[in-house]
Amino acid sequence: MTINPTTKQQDVSLHVPAIGWLRSPWSILVSVGLAIYVGTAHKEIAVMLAPLGSFYLGLLKMCVLPILLAAITTSIGRLMRSSDAALYIKRILVVFPLGLVVTSGFTVLIATLAGPGRNLSTKTLKSLGVLVIDSGIDLEMTLTGPLPEQVSQGIDTFLISLVPDNIFSALSQGDTLKVLMFSIIVGTSLGLIRDRVTEPCFDILEAIYRTFNQLINWLTIVLPIGLFSLLAYQLSQQGLDIMLSMINFVLTALIISFVIYVLSTLVVWQQSKVSLLKVLAA
Q1: How far apart are CA 114 and CA 108, in angstroms?
Q2: 26 with 135: CB under 8 angstroms?
Q3: How far apart are CA 38 and CA 44, in angstroms?
Q4: Cβ contacts of residue 73 below 8 Å, gap of 6+?
Q5: How far apart are the C-alpha atoms of 262 and 103, rounded to whole Å?
Q6: How far apart are CA 57 and CA 234, in angstroms?
Q7: Per-residue pLDDT tens for 137-190?
Q8: Can you tell me the distance from the alpha carbon of 213 to that of 218, in angstroms, rounded to the nearest whole number?
Q9: Is residue 58 part of a domain?
Q10: Range of the domain at 258
Q11: pTM of the prediction?
Q12: Alpha helices (H) along the chain
């Protein structure tokens, strides 16, 4: 008896329930509302949900460095192989620093005018201080004895510190700048080796990037659940005041992001030489 594999595969097809609504902004708003309620009215439940939020956050952090390593290395390597590499590099060296200066200057100006951290009460400042301490930042001050000697660091010391002595140690410690420098150097080297023997390296890096990007895509489906767990626990520990004190900061950040988005869109529109509707659609 013969079996048609195509027919058999169709018979055992899985019916996955539609969960696309979890990606909706409305589901995020609902999770925030539930987190506020649980974090303030049922603190014991919020504490029980804390490991779930930490687990979700750990999964997100796990994907950052592999994506950074694979994406930067592959992009720079393929850029160096391009026939217009010199032109692109010149544009990058001009546009990126200029864009960083303009964006930073605009952000400082808006933040200075808005002052999102002004006029905070003593209680709120204490709560923010507790959050900083809980974030794992180690601060130690010696109140007695001689003051420690300050070691001045120049630009040369800073540049040397960017080069990782051991890339595996930098990856395990989450040192993003060293991983970024390693990716740039390796990507440049791979791009300059114009040989087919390097193609498998690009294929492996591309596979790593797509794998972790797919994992991020899956994690965004359960974002409302992870956000609910994290926010509920924070509110159960710090109270609703700490959230209200950040409203001005959030609004200022949204305004800055919107203005930068509009300016960037206008630049793309002018350079693309197409209608603004096509740019927005793309």
Answers
A1: 10
A2: no
A3: 9
A4: 183, 186, 187, 190, 205
A5: 12
A6: 14
A7: 555 555 555 656 656 667 778 778 888 888 888 888 888 889 999 999 999 999
A8: 9
A9: no
A10: 246-282
A11: 0.68
A12: 5-11, 25-41, 43-81, 85-114, 122-134, 155-162, 167-173, 176-192, 199-221, 223-238, 241-244, 247-272, 276-281
Q: Is residue 230 part of a domain?
A: no
> Does residue 259 lie in a domain region?
yes
Q: For residues 202 and 188, what is the distance between their CA atoms, to the nearest angstrom?
A: 12
DSSP letter for 22, please.
G
Residue matched to tokens 């001005």: 248
Tokens of 240: 């609703």
Task: Please name the residue that has the structure tokens 């204490």.
Answer: 126
What single-letter amino acid sits at 213? N
Gap between the Cα atoms of 169 and 173, Å rounded: 6
Count of structural domains within the chain: 1
pLDDT of the residue at 213? 93
What is the tens place of the pLDDT at every residue in 91-132? 888 988 998 898 899 899 888 888 887 777 676 666 666 666
The CA R_g of the chain, rounded to the nearest whole Å, is 25
The one-letter amino acid code at 66 reads P
